[in-house]
Every structure is written in C-alpha cells, then in structure tokens.
Amino acid sequence: MEKGINAYIKERFHLGDVDIRTYSPLTLAYIGDGIYDLVIRSVVVGRGNTKAGKLHQTTSQLVKAHAQSEMMHAIEPELTEEESDVFRRGRNAKSPTMAKNATMADYRRATGFEALMGYLYLKDDFERLVELVLCGLEHYDAKTGKTIEEKQGE
C-alpha cells in the first residue's frame, strides 16, 4: 500500500506517532480545515484554468460553513460508526469563535465536518476522505443546481 501524505510528512520531519483518538475535536477540525481547502482548491483548479480571483471565489463558496453543513447532510448516512463519533465530537465541541456569515447550526456541523476530514487525513485514509468529499460535492451541486464549472463561469 502506498504511503499517505501525512505518513510522508511525519517521516520527513521526524514526527513521532500520536494516537489520533487523543486529539481534541477542535485540533482535528484545525487540520481538517486545511486539508479540505486543499482538496477543494485541487478540484477547482483541475476543472478549469481561469483567473486567480475566480478560482478564489469558487473555492470560497465551497469551503464556507453553510456549504460544509449541506455536504454533511449528504454524507452523514454514509459514515461508519467511528466516523460518526468523530463528526459528533467535532459538532459538539465548544469553539471560542464563530463564522461571520453562518448560523450556529451550520457552524457546528461544519466544525464536525472539518474534524472528520482531519481525522481521516491523520489516519492516512485519504481515499475515504476524497470519497466523502465527492459525495458531498455531488449533493451540494445538485442542491444549488450548479456545478463547479458553472460557478467558475459566473
């Protein structure tokens, strides 16, 4: 089996193994936010070479709390028990901040979503992470009636 990106980083930077179940849900959400952003940026760039401002605008629409919350509605029934537990821990975590343009419900669901993304990344299960993001994006595109390519063309 091919080594995941997290395993590669840990090896190259001489980082020790940590039981990821000991990480707080907000720590998982912190890394998950970055990983999810990277996945979305990769998808947006891969679906059309356009101006950087348009790439940023499209990406911003997909990484905001409301979009993550909507995606979570689609993927929640697909989660394993372990993944559901991580999501619930993230959703229920008490964060000292809140997104500017999100409801509390969306923000909490988005935090759970990001915690799940972080958990899967740190677990080196990038295949599952991408599978869930794909499912979420398909749901979000269907709900908004626009694909990423159509969003970029606006």
Automatic annotation (TrEMBL):
Keywords: Cytoplasm, Endonuclease, Hydrolase, Magnesium, Nuclease, Ribosome biogenesis, RNA-binding, rRNA processing, rRNA-binding. InterPro entries: Mini3_fam (IPR008226), RNase_III_dom (IPR000999), RNase_III_sf (IPR036389). Transmembrane segments: none annotated. The keyword DNA repair does not apply. Its EC number is 3.1.26.-. It comes from the Bacteria. The active site is at 33. The keyword Nuclease applies. Residues 7-142 form the RNase III domain. It is found in: Cytoplasm. Its cofactor is Mg(2+). Its main location: cytoplasm. Pfam families: Ribonuclease_3. Homodimer. Belongs to the MrnC RNase family. Involved in correct processing of both the 5' and 3' ends of 23S rRNA precursor. Processes 30S rRNA precursor transcript even in absence of ribonuclease 3 (Rnc); Rnc processes 30S rRNA into smaller rRNA precursors. This is Mini-ribonuclease 3. It comes from Roseburia yibonii. The gene is mrnC.
